[in-house]
Design goal:
UDP-n-acetylglucosamine1-carboxyvinyl-transferase, Chain, 6-stranded parallel beta sheet, about 20% strand, 3 domains, Rossmann fold, alpha/beta, 4-stranded mixed beta sheet
């Protein structure tokens, strides 16, 4: 098939429906009382897993191919399924439904496919267990299948360790059933579809900055939901229309939730021309008309990034600045990070290294590459895998918990030298400055996929371990001294040299 280069784009298009809102439309319709109709539902496998899951719980749901009609039964009307509920590969389904089932008076088992079984669920299970439910994973682990024994829930004050709309939503669903006011404090604001739909379904929720308060129990009422198009899908057409001369593209029914519209803000900053019309405030959608423009460069700051990329928290990869380092380290870093599939992997591209070079070692791995934005990436990252060098110090100063990874073909030789000949205890700047082990150094033959995976697990899910590392960063920073420490150090070195020359 021959690909032809377009000279201009003109016309009207409807992009696929928003997946997050499609999931939630079924959930809210089921737990509300009365009839909910859902139009423009995304009939993808994941969203259908949510729909079928609630059918198994006794919720009457009809789908004529155009409109889904849900006869809501309320929280109390949900009934035990005849067996474990299969949610396929839908991470959104299992996480949010855990919050809904936490307040029931029966036991529910949720299972998923083999791929999703590798996703840890502790970040969702922990706050729900604190509220009084009993959630446990396979063989008492944090991995699916998940067994949920619902209970009368107590309110909770919970400070989220990472930004996650899914974890937040699960807690909110549970809070709607609890007796009293729950407070959720976000690390950073995340997508607020759940909060907005509570209001749409007649519920009450208080949001002030990063603090969310929900008082339960609440009874929601069925509504009409028109699922907007996904602005992530619309972004391709928005950019194409903006950069091609003599173009105008009309995108109907696109979601304009402010937590998702970073693409429009960036386009405006670049001098792009677009117009919003047919605004539907209830469903947070509009028609977006984009016209070709003469664009200018702009700077995308760290605070903009959460509104431009997926909601999943980030594992940052800083795989070195030289080709040999990238070749030796990046493949194993990727394999280790890939086990944590509830995180997105973002690779910081090094100056002078091309995208094509990285692709040789990335292959089909699900990883984003960004260039010239390392500090913005570290600002948003939850954890990092870093090769030894100044990058370890940069990660510590942001501060991002990290594992230092440095593979070499002569690993056993290096390990021998380090143990028996070399006098320095550490190789990373963080540990050298602190003169103690603040971060784990996986060097030479100690850097294996399994060892990196184990260290990432500690960093992400062992709260005490993570905090010790952050405290170590503070100690390291204190040893660096006040602002201007490099200048002070240089002055001291010059003084010492002068004294030496006088002798």
């Amino acid at each position: 098939m021959e690909l032809l280069r377009a000279k201009q784009l003109n016309g009207q298009i409807e992009v696929p429906a928003d997946k997050s809102i499609s999931h939630r439309s079924i959930m809210f319709g089921a737990i509300a009382k009365g009839t909910t109709t859902v139009k423009n539902f995304l009939r993808g496998e994941d969203c259908l897993s949510t729909l079928n899951g609630f059918k198994e719980l006794g919720v009457p749901i009809e789908d004529d191919g155009q409109t889904i009609t849900i006869q809501g039964v309320g929280f109390e009307g949900l009934k035990p399924a005849l067996g474990p509920i299969d949610l396929g590969n839908s991470g959104t389904s299992i996480r949010l439904m855990m919050g809904i089932f936490a307040g029931t008076n029966f036991q529910t088992s949720l299972f998923v496919d083999e791929y999703l079984n590798r996703r840890p669920m502790q970040r969702v299970m922990a706050p729900l267990n604190q509220m009084g439910a009993h959630l446990v994973g396979f063989e008492n682990t944090q991995y699916p299948p998940i067994s949920i024994q619902g209970a009368k829930l107590s309110p909770i004050t919970y400070e989220m360790p990472v930004a996650s709309a899914q974890v937040k939503s699960a807690i909110i669903f549970a809070a709607l059933q609890a007796q009293g006011t729950s407070t959720i404090i976000e690390k950073e604001p995340s997508r607020n579809h759940t909060e907005q739909m509570i209001k749409q379904f007649g519920g009450e929720i208080e949001v002030s900055g990063k603090t969310i308060r929900v008082t339960g129990p609440q009874q929601l009422t069925g509504q009409e939901v028109i699922v907007p198009g996904d602005i992530s899908s619309a972004a391709f057409f928005i950019v194409a229309a903006a950069i091609l001369k003599n173009s105008q593209v009309v995108l109907k029914n696109v979601g304009i939730n402010p937590t998702r519209t970073g693409i429009l803000d960036v386009l405006e900053a670049m001098g792009g021309t677009f117009e919003l019309s047919e605004i539907d405030e209830a469903n947070e959608s509009a028609t977006i008309t984009v016209t070709s423009s003469t664009l200018k460069a702009t700077t995308i700051q760290g605070a903009d990034i959460p509104r431009l990329i997926d909601e999943l928290p980030i594992i940052a990869l800083l795989a070195g600045s030289r080709k040999q380092e990238i070749k030796d380290n990046l493949p194993d870093m990727l394999r280790a990070a890939a086990s944590f599939t509830e995180y997105q992997i973002v690779l910081a591209g090094a100056p002078g290294i091309t995208f094509d070079y990285y692709k040789k070692y990335i292959g089909d791995a699900d990883v984003k590459i960004i260039f010239h934005q390392t500090f913005s990436l570290l600002h948003q990252a939850t954890a990092a895998l870093v090769t030894s060098g100044t990058a370890t110090l940069e990660a510590a100063l942001f501060p991002v918990p990290q594992a230092v990874c440095y593979h070499t073909p002569i690993g056993k030789v290096i390990t021998f030298l380090k143990r028996h000949i070399l006098k320095v205890k550490y190789v990373s700047l963080v540990n050298l400055i602190a003169n103690r082990e603040v971060v784990k150094e996986l060097i030479a033959d100690a850097m294996t996929v399994e060892q990196v995976r184990l260290e990432l697990d500690r960093i992400l899910y062992n709260k005490a371990y993570r905090q010790r590392m952050l405290d170590g960063y503070k100690y390291m920073a204190s040893r660096l001294g006040e602002a201007g420490a490099p200048k002070h150090a240089a002055r001291e070195m010059v003084t010492l040299l002068h004294e030496h020359c006088k002798k």
